[in-house]
Specification:
Elements lengths: L6 E6 L4 H12 L2 E7 L9 H4 L4 H4 E5 L9 H4 L4 E4 L12 H22 L4 E5 L23 H7 L4 H21 L3 E4 L3 E3 L9 H6 L1 H4 L5 H4 L4 E3 H13 L13 H5 L8 H14 L5
Parallel strand pairs: 1-2, 1-4, 2-3, 4-5, 5-6, 7-8
Helix pairs in contact: 1-11, 5-7
The structure holds NADP nicotinamide-adenine-dinucleotide phosphate (NAP).
Keywords: NADP, Oxidoreductase
Pfam families: Epimerase
Protein name: NAD-dependent epimerase/dehydratase domain-containing protein
């Protein structure tokens, strides 16, 4: 453990690939974690969560389902940060897309509503997906949170993942609308295909996809073309990084240099120069190699 008592946070969908890895890292870093599981999870072997180091004292399991938007309340109230990771990923074509979208949008809005009402939640980190930003008829060299996938264009590709792309995009748009309307501090992390080790018992969908060539799953080969991948540990670290940014610590005042600048002084060096110079001297004097 790095340090004790970093605070209380909630991770939705703790049985999942990304969420379980995130929970492991949060516990290692000294957070107390509440995680939500669907009620049917009670019959499952959850030892990959309950046997994590620190879990006995610092991991608390709650039942909640996106089908019941208010069911996340008990897990969220009192937390400072919420990581909303849960979203149906595997076997989603068994449910009509409209039904699925209603569930993910209303479930997510229910979570955000509880966060906004809680008085304790300072930031919500939402696990987005590259699927919400990369698909467009027009070739875009670089995409980020300012670009959206064109769902109609994606449907024309007939990949079979239309429901996932559509529900992720609709859910995130609804989340941004809510956050803006209610002044909620929302940050999204947009992972590409997440691959790497896993602690959950099942083979995660994305790991199966990422290893399609190794596993000989030919139906998945077409999905790999041009697909970027990211290590699950980097995804977890990014979630923790953005949850801490700006919300912890003493907020310092800006030290005014107006008088100096108004009197004709010109600053010559940027922050990059500050670090470059310091690192160069440290190297020259043997403090770092
Ligand atoms: N893995 C990737 O490559 C990747 C890339 C980009 C973004 N993401 C995003 O990362 C998040 C996690 O994905 P993952 O790969 O970890 O998938 P996963 O292993 O399938 O995890 C999905 C989680 O969502 C939960 N869930 C599904 N339906 C639910 C419902 N109705 N109510 C409450 N919880 C529900 C699942 O619970 P059950 O175990 O009960 O089904 C599971 O815990 C998702 O938001 C996904 O869109 C993943």
């Amino acid at each position: 453990m790095e340090s004790d008592d970093k605070g209380l946070v909630c991770v939705t969908g703790g049985t999942g690939y990304v969420a379980s890895w995130l929970i492991m890292r949060l516990l290692q870093q000294g957070y107390t974690v509440r995680t939500t599981l669907r009620p049917h999870s009670g019959q499952r072997d959850l030892s990959f969560l309950t046997s994590l180091p620190g879990a006995t004292e610092k991991l608390h399991l709650f039942h909640a389902d996106l089908n019941e938007p208010d069911s996340f309340r008990a897990a969220i109230e009192g937390c400072t940060g919420v990581f909303h990771v849960a979203h149906p990923v595997g076997n989603i074509n068994a449910i009509p897309e409209d039904e699925l979208a209603k569930m993910t949008v209303e479930g997510t809005l229910g979570i955000l509503k509880v966060c906004a009402e809680s008085k304790t939640v300072k930031r919500v980190v939402y696990t987005s997906s590259a699927a919400t930003v990369v698909y467009s008829e027009e070739r875009r060299e670089v995409v980020d949170e300012n670009t959206w996938s064109d769902i109609d264009f994606y449907r024309s590709l007939k990949t079979g993942a239309e429901a996932y792309v559509a529900t992720k995009t609709k859910t995130e748009k609804a989340a941004w609308d809510f956050a803006e309307k209610h002044g909620l501090d929302l940050v999204t992390v947009i992972p590409t295909l997440v691959v790497g080790p896993f602690i959950c018992h099942n083979l995660p969908v994305s790991v199966g996809l990422g290893l399609a060539l190794v596993l000989g799953n030919e139906t998945h080969y077409k999905h790999l073309e041009g697909t970027s991948m990211v290590h699950v540990d980097d995804v977890a670290s990014a979630h923790i990084h953005v949850s801490l940014k700006d919300i912890k610590g003493f907020s310092k005042s800006i030290c005014s240099s107006k008088k100096l600048v108004d009197s004709g002084f010109k600053f010559k060096y940027s922050l990059d120069d500050v670090f470059d110079g310091a690192i160069q001297s440290c190297k020259e004097k043997g403090f770092i190699s």
